[in-house]
Amino acid sequence: MKKEIQTPSYQTLLKDFDSFITVRNYKLGRGGKMHQNAVTEFLMWMEENGITKIKEITSTEMILYYEYLITRPNKRREGTLAEQTIKSRLYSLSLFMQNLLENRSIESGFYIPSYGGNGTSKIRNTLTVEEIKLVYAYCENDLESALLSVAYGCGLRRSELESLNVRDIQLSTGELIVREGKGSKRRVVPMSDTVIESVRKYIHNERHERVLNSEHFEDAFFVNMRGSRMRGEHLNDTLKKMIEQTNSYELVQKEITLHCLRHSIANHLAENHAEIEFIRRFLGHTEINTAYIYAIKNKKRNKITTFLK
């Protein structure tokens, strides 16, 4: 890799970043040089791979850069970069993106992977909008349609799907209530028209038939053939079956889980310029920077209405 940044706009961004970390005291000790070196290497890698405008950086480039980072040789000793070094580089990039968002060099940001150690990443496989539509098209019953609609369209965690009750579905207002999410946090999630219709059909048809012959009253939203609450493992197995129904080798190889659907909707919201605060509340995150860093522009409910059409 060359030693200096050639692109004038990148040179300017690097100077701006230097001012950014100076004002916030990130340059104390060895930190300043570490952050500068990390961002310099990042921008030079982008240059060498034909990305000369900061707004051209997408999740694809970030994944490729991450793969480069965890496999590139260590310049001071044998082997690759140490785990702590990789984590520090990724942290420096999160500061850089914060600076880019603040000075409006970018309107919506790229996500930054979290390093899992042992050469692994916490990046989860996700589906594209077209792949979501494909799975939806191959749903064989109302339960499958409702599961995809709620897991993806509402971004629920597996545990939240399992504990969801019928009383948590407010069809009249188009809202879904997560009464106790991660950290015992309650949140209200908006439902798109497509999600509302899938949920309505499931409640009035398949779910109604399943609980009709049940020996006890069950308020659970997702119920099995005996009318009892479906557990998380059963819901995941149902999704796996739905993926296999598409006969798509590529989809099957992705090993998609319910939590992957949650990350998929987060990606799609970010790509459609949803506000970072909206995404945070939509997913029930305590902090903005969690597994991914999502960036923002407009907070509009219709951002979640187009994906399942």
From TrEMBL:
UniProt xrefs under PROSITE patterns: TYR_RECOMBINASE (PS51898)
Domain Tyr recombinase: 122-307
GO molecular function: DNA binding
Keyword line: DNA recombination, DNA-binding
SUPFAM superfamilies in UniProt: DNA breaking-rejoining enzymes (SSF56349)
Superkingdom, taxonomy of origin: Bacteria
InterPro entries, per the entry: DNA_brk_join_enz, Integrase-like_cat_sf, Integrase_catalytic, Integrase_recombinase_N, Tyrosine_recombinase_XerCD
GO biological process, one term: DNA recombination
Keyword DNA-binding: yes
DNA-binding listed as a keyword: yes
Family that this chain belongs to: Belongs to the 'phage' integrase family.
Name this protein carries in UniProt: Integrase
Species whose genome carries this gene: Chryseobacterium joostei
